[in-house]
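Quick one: co-fold with heme C.
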Amino acid sequence: MALMAAGVVMAAGGAFLIFGRDVHAMTPAEEGLHPTQFPWEHTKWHKTYDHASLRRGFQVYREVCASCHSLSRIPYRTLVGNMMTVDEAKALAEENEYDTDPNDEGEIEKRPGKLSDYIPSPYKNDEAARAANNGALPPDLSLMVKARHGGVNYIFSLLTGYPEEPPAGATVPDGLNFNPYFPGTGIAMARVLFDGLVEYEDGTPATTSQMAKDVVEFLNWSAEPEADERKKMGWKVIAVTSVLLGLSIWVKKYKWAPIKSRKIVYNPPVVGTPVSKLKQMENQKAK
Ligand code: HEC
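Sure, here it is.
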């Protein structure tokens, strides 16, 4: 009896665990608000990046984010053909100075940047970056789209999600800014995008959401520069393998046709045939 009762209690407990109330290790505020799923064109499997948007997004990165965030995995050469011409990229690289290799006396000199150089960081090191940002480290943005749960949706929501005022009852520690999408809601980065902050050369109105969209698409490119190529390769793979699939179906049918259409006939001996007759039939077969 006691065993049965224990069984019932355990079953009920199991059912509650599976179907009962959700249990969270963290509160929604600690986890951050889930970002909206936006209908990004460039993430669709048959679409590519909008390269005009990448160009605008890089402009936003350069004019706004680059004063705090590095983009250390991106060399100038990768911009060529994706968002600018060779000459534009060269001119951009030459705006910065890089160390030369040591000369015969072991001296390191400065030279203008080349296409093979990487985009420089705004700070000398992490300590300098923290010192300039109230102790918070602005992370490198090269792989940010892959590094955060929610990817493009999260970063877009983060950039556009600063309310005018923190909601009533929210406590915002000193030096932090309220943003519901940031885990913990207190983020060291203040709102950086405001309508009309940059001037797009193609005349696109630079609203907050337009700049956020462009810079996020650009950051998606920096994290997955191979995406366009990868999708094109996917199409080729589908084209080739579907021909191979058709061919293999045909070959299979061809090889199996004689086996599948074979007819096996067996005539059982008539019941009551005398043994002598059967022997005679067998002898005939053997011949
Ligand atoms: C004034 C300096 C500053 C500027 C300008 C700036 N940021 Fe930040 N950003 C920071 C700091 C500091 C942090 C670290 C925040 C923290 O950990 O609380 C941060 C964090 C981030 C994060 C990571 C959030 C996370 O989940 O950890 C992203 C993404 C980001 N910034 C994107 C951008 C983009 C895109 C721009 C340009 C449109 C930009 N930032 C401009 C200072 C800046």
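If it helps, The CA atoms of residues 9 and 15 lie 10 Å apart.
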